[in-house]
Structures are given as structure tokens and as C-alpha cells.
Known about the structure:
By secondary structure, the chain is mainly α. The protein has two domains: 73 residues, Arc Repressor Mutant, subunit A; 137 residues, Up-down Bundle (Four Helix Bundle (Hemerythrin (Met), subunit A)). 76% of the residues lie in helices and 5% in strands. The protein is built from nine helices and three strands, in the order αβααββαααααα. Strands 1-3-2 form a three-stranded antiparallel β-sheet. Helix 6 packs parallel to helix 8.
Amino acid sequence: MQAALSQDTESLADQAYDLVERMIVTLELNPGSVFSENDLSERIGIGRTPLREALQRLAGDRLLVALPRRGMMVTDINVTEYLALLETRRILDRLIVARAAKRCSEEKRNELRRCAEELRGAAAREDLDDFMRLDRACDEILEAAAHNPFAVRAVAPLHAHCRRFWSMYRHSCDLGRSAELHSRLLDAVADGDEKAAESASDRLIDYLERFTREAVELL
């Protein structure tokens, strides 16, 4: 019975993590905003114990910071730190896509090809919300195909920070160019071409670095 309760709590904590991360990434919880566990627990309908576990994980991901006697605060976007994050993501993404290209099942390869096509469609419709949803789905397919849980665990919060940055500066984004770069990466992995996948991953990070500097006028 105790083991079952533990599993239930863990499942609720995972749900709370996904919900709150989405709220942060989509700016429903804005950078700098402060909230209490009680208020957020009522808002998302999940108890304080699993929510507290989720908030601790998000604090570890540097998306939240604890404020003594005040609650939790959503971290601000620090551009210098964000560019350092992209440096780190470059290395991890390259590893993940290379391993995915080598180890991907035929079923996953077909999923990646479909995902690339749907990304291009979302860009053509200029539907950023659907594009971001598909971007996360593609990341999850790549991460599952790579069969490297250590790299995946390290890169997941970096992707969340990137989606939040896109939400913040969505008015500056070029969905067509982003879709093209994502599609090249996904197609290379689906084709099993490790070198092409690594190169496509680097080109995507190059674009994200340029987008960051242009969005905040650092050029």
C-alpha cells in the first residue's frame, strides 16, 4: 500500500511539473512573478506535497527561485546566462541527435518525418503555439530514440528555457527559417545520417544564438 501511495505521489508530481513548466514557458507565469504554494495548488488542482516536489525540481532547473516567507518567484531571463545555456545545449543536442540517428527504430524515423512535415505546416500557417507544441514533441521523440537518459535529463530544462525565450520574443521570430532548420535536423536523423544530424544541430544552435542577439539588440 505504501509503495502504491508513493507511486501516486510521484505521478502527481510529474503532472504538476509538466503543468507548471508549461505555465512558465508560455508566460502564463511571467518572469519575476511571485506565487504561493497554496494559491498555485488551488489553481492547478494538485495537492501541496506533489506540487512542492515539482517546484523543487523547477528550482533546480533554474526556472524558479524560493523566496523565504514569500513563496516562489519565476526567474528572469538573463541574456548572458541564456547564451551560455545555448553553448551547453549545442554539445548535448549534438550527442543526442547523433545517437538517435544511429539507434532510432523505423517507427521513430517515420514519426520524425511526420513531425518535420507538421512543423513546416505550422510555420506556413504562422501558428507559433502549434509550432512550439510540435517542437517539444520532436524533442521527446529524439530523446527517446537516443537511449541516453543522462544526456536527456541534462538537456530537458535547457529546452524549456529556450521555449520560454521564444515565447518572450515571439514577435521577432522567423518561423519559416526555424522550421527549415528543424526539418533538416529531423530528416537527417530519420535518414540515419549521424554527421548530417550533428551538422544540422549546430546550424540550429547558430540560428538560435543569432536570434537571441537580434531579439535583444545585442548586435
